[in-house]
Write a structure and sequence with these properties.
Chain lengths: ~400, ~400
């Protein structure tokens, strides 16, 4: 069961002026299941994207990057049930055909459509069914359809994921609404499985692209469920410009910083929802590494801890078998690491220092923290001023069950 | 249950002239459980060791490396039930005290004792109980005690692991016998959890050290169960020199190569036994990567596949969800990888080529290979002449169970 995700309902997700969403059951995943989403954007919308670094990246990722580079964007099209990844040349043709079909219906150019797919890898996209589903999605287009959109993009997700915020910006009230999906094959490298955030703020393209990358680095790029970087990760940030305020053109401006902070908060909430709904998750773990020489080494240590099956199963069991954390720190790959300078905290409890167990540490204190559903592991390297945080979940029987049964 | 390990019994493990082994129940692990092993070596034995690269390496690893560097070796002492790792300065003192106690009993110097520990991390070594157990182990010393020794060093291992070979070398018949333990926290980096191989061959120290490293790289350094590099890994190669043949002093000699090939075969058998008895294992997986630019990139790809929880759970389920393998190849970290040149084989079945599913691939062919308990995954990168092989196991409910319950 998801770890502490408040139940989402339609009224939590505010419409964003300039954005409409339409849903259909195209029969890609299975019948009677929403599996196709179309989002249309008003004319002056700027769109920025960040995509997976996986070399086996999916056909829709290749095409979306290409379209984004050469054109303004009028629509996004997302299907679940099939990732169209590991499908070679024919996969690219399939994606091209779907973009062309949607463009025809909308009266725009194919390159104004960004395609996204998620689901099983190395199976041909059922392109005819997808195309047949498009008209129904267009009939359904409306601004207050974000909740249904969040449901539509789910795969092994148990709950839909979305969040809205409103802020005052240059004298106007603007809205930011985001949705995301993802539960397994989650260790984003530059983006997450699928995350879409829209705002009616007015911001130029260069500033929006910079913001998308900054936001991804502080949110989706900080999570891991299983260490598997997906072939289809994409994070898209859309700004329709429908709000009535002066355009943001300067990354040093108060408005840029305010908007970026809010979008980051939205993205971090979505990213954490993905972990909270991580496959089989029963606990939400924050791994914070402080006082490293640089951010990269802090991330290295944080990911070593966050990926260790031994540590993740100990969290599942609420077993303070914390020597496993020391072992992971030790093999994280920092060659000149002096283990005698490290402090390990579980919650507020100092567990280890001077290369071994802290004299005041009592197992019952560690046990008390382990029993909680939200746990912070803090590792202080004492060799610099850099920090990094990674969010992850535990590793349970259900992770094995979900992934052993995925296609059945 | 272990995957295809022939049942070992005492007569399978041949004595090695010059080596005696003694066992005791010291009450370190739990009562009525063999947990202490002493091996004594004849006077002119050469010993070479390879140890974990984990920065949080255990006190006995620190001490064993130190002793090996400065002295000849008269005895090895191994306890299970406690790793004496993450124990700081007091851990080193404890190990020092045990070496001193054994040296007193044997009439040698403490630095002639190599200590080894395996078990739970960050708990103080019960040093008094260990020392009290030593006399019983010495009373038990005998050359034909290898089977009991293999049983003694087990932790979460289900079966004891050992193998013997005999070869003709420079006109003499020499024996090689090895034992190993390990089942979880297995992703050796320069060595394995614990592996001991002895021979009565006559070989000088420099050649033996070189051989130990070569052998480790072709055996223990090619396995992974869970990607967790232990704090206590050690592989020790001992040559008593009791056999009656000319000493091996040249790595280009036929005798060196013959001995190294045989020791490598023994070590690879032991290493594979560790994987076959990997925590919760139901399948034995060989990941072979061919035609890479260099061995390192082949290993990178092989380990990405061998560590992916998504792939390992699919093996457990016998589900040919092979797109997950493409995803892992894609995120293995080779930046200029051309996925269109890659071939993926499952057993003899060509699964993927040209960036997608091979036209002739039929799911029932993949299913047939997946149903087997021994599976070879072969990835051909087609960008060079280098190869690497990694042996691993699947990821089952029992892995979670074993590690959630480890200390209870």
């Amino acid at each position: 069961m998801p770890v502490n995700i408040p139940t989402l309902s339609a009224e939590h997700l505010l419409p964003v002026p300039g954005v409409s969403l339409g849903i259909a059951e195209a029969g890609i995943k299975k019948s009677n299941r929403k599996d196709l989403l179309v989002m249309t954007l008003s004319k002056d919308t700027h769109v920025a994207g960040v995509f997976t670094q996986n070399r086996f990246c999916a056909a829709p990722v290749v095409v979306a990057k290409e379209h984004l580079a050469k054109s303004s964007v009028h629509a996004l099209m997302v299907n679940t049930g099939n990732a169209n990844a590991g499908t070679g040349e024919i996969g690219l043709q399939h994606t091209g055909a779907t973009c062309m079909a949607l463009a025809d219906l909308l009266g725009c150019e194919p390159c104004q459509v960004l395609p996204f797919s998620t689901g099983v890898i190395m199976e041909p996209l059922p392109v005819d069914r997808l195309i047949k589903g498009l008209p129904a999605a267009l009939v359904d287009l409306k601004p207050d359809n974000w909740f249904a959109a969040a449901q539509t993009i789910m795969t092994t997700d148990i709950v839909p994921k979305g969040v809205s915020r409103q802020i005052e910006l240059n004298g106007a009230t603007i809205t930011i609404t985001g949705i995301a999906k993802g539960s397994g094959m989650i260790r984003p490298n530059m983006a997450t499985m699928l995350g879409f955030i829209a705002t009616d703020a007015k911001i130029n393209q260069a500033m929006l692209q910079r913001m998308a990358r900054n936001v991804a680095d502080q949110s989706f790029n900080c999570i891991t469920v299983d260490g598997d970087t997906s072939t289809n990760d994409a994070f898209v940030l859309m700004a329709t410009g429908c709000a009535d305020h002066a355009e943001i053109c300067d990354q040093e401006s108060v408005a840029f910083k305010h908007l970026q902070a809010t979008v980051t908060a939205v993205a971090a909430t979505l990213a954490q929802m993905i972990v909270r709904d991580g496959e089989g998750a029963t606990k939400f773990i924050t791994v914070q590494v402080d006082d490293g020489q640089h951010v990269n080494e802090c991330k290295q240590v944080a990911y070593a801890v966050a990926h260790s099956p031994l540590i993740k199963t100990a969290f599942f069991a609420s077993d303070p078998n914390l020597g496993r954390i020391l072992a992971a720190i030790g093999y994280a790959g920092i060659d000149d690491l002096d283990v005698n300078r490290i402090q390990l905290y579980l919650g507020d409890v100092l567990v280890a220092e001077n290369g071994g167990r802290a004299p005041a540490y009592r197992e019952e204190d560690g046990q008390q923290v382990m029993n909680q559903s939200e746990i912070v592991v803090r590792i202080v390297l004492n060799r610099g001023a850099a920090s990094a945080t990674v969010w992850t979940c535990d590793f349970s029987y259900d992770y094995v069950k979900i992934n052993a049964d995925y296609r059945s």
